[in-house]
Amino acid sequence: MISKAADYLFLALAAAPFIYYLLVLYCSWRFFRSSKDGVPGNSDFVPPISSLKPIRGLDPEAYENYASF
What span, in angstroms and rounded, lies between the C-alpha atoms of 16 and 10? Predict the structure, then answer.
């Protein structure tokens, strides 16, 4: 017969994933709730980007490709 301490140990091990899932659900709920309550975004903001053009080999239209930027 398994002792009571072992029973509680197995119960804690079995409950750990369930507690983790509850924590994940709570954090997800808070994250998506706070995004709705946040400050309205500035519509004039445009994030900076980098445009990369691959350069390899000899291309007959290379000048036109580089001048297109």
Answer: 10
pLDDT tens profile 39-53: 556 667 778 988 877
Write b or e for each residue in 32-60: b if 16 or more Cβ atoms lie within 10 A of its Cβ, otherwise e.
eeeeeeeeeeeeeeeeeeeeeeeeeeeee
In this predicted model, what pLDDT tens digit does every residue of 12-24 receive, in sequence order? 999 999 999 999 9
Token representation of residue 20: 């983790």
In this structure, the number of other CB atoms found within 10 A of the CB of residue 22 comes to: 10
Q: Give 11-24 as a DSSP string.
A: HHHHHHHHHHHHHH
